[in-house]
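hey can u run this one w/ zinc ion bound, need the structure tokens asap thx
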Amino acid sequence: MRIGIDLGGTKIEAIALDETGAVLGRRRVPTPRHDYDATLDAIVALVSGLEQEAGQRGSVGVGIPGTVSPATGLVKNANSTWIIGRPLDRDLASRLARPVRLANDANCFALSEAVDGAGAGCRVVFGVIVGTGTGGGIVVDRRVLTGRNAIAGEWGHNPLPWPRPDEWPGPACYCGKTGCVETFLSGPGLARDYQQATGEALEAAEIAARAARGDGPAGEALTRYEGRMARALAIVLDVLDPDVVVLGGGISQIERLYSSVPRLWQEWAFSDRVDTPLRPPVHGDASGVRGAAWLWE
Ligand SMILES: [Zn+2]
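ok here u go:
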């Protein structure tokens, strides 16, 4: 049995999967914010609850909004700041009396879709989460490619390629740079672009809904968005040439992206033709917790 934990900023989700990926149990508790010890306790309680329910012991993988620094063994880049600088995997391992694997939540998403989701049967899967932020993860042969610095796939903070004059230098990003892919492709990025063009503040989902109803300014904002996503992903195609790109996060619900973006990235990728499919996720919101479980093959 494999247990996956998705440690989010507001809730901790847990799932138990059998060998085939069927769900044996599912639990969810609010995240004890700003309390590291209580966060450990909550995860231990979720694991023992699932094990009692299933009547067996499981392996444990945890997805976190950050990553473990290979250099220090401590959590870095997490927006749940109370776990930063902590040896979360070792602390959990000692409390659970077994090794625990940790991975970035975008990597867990990519792994879940690679194992039995939209990337099933593909050797190299690039998973993108476009929601509040923009993150990416690479899976090769059903294993997460973490990288020497644990940043493989993190292309959200590279600059938007082939910028037009009105996209340069681009919006300021929380990472300290300007014009990052994330500042254009995240939900807030789409909303900002729409507001700049129309003066109206709308959420990304509402812009997409209006575009689907034929609204002009919303459709134009999405067209700009698609061009940017195509350019940003063309870089990924050139560097990694994955067998499939899978979108996740709130933006992945915009259906027209799956036909428009692959049509547009043909123009930018360094190839006479590009056959790479862009697919919606199969597991949706459950991908994080499922991918955490699959951290143990
Ligand atoms: Zn940035």
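The CA atoms of residues 252 and 280 lie 6 Å apart. anyway lmk if its weird
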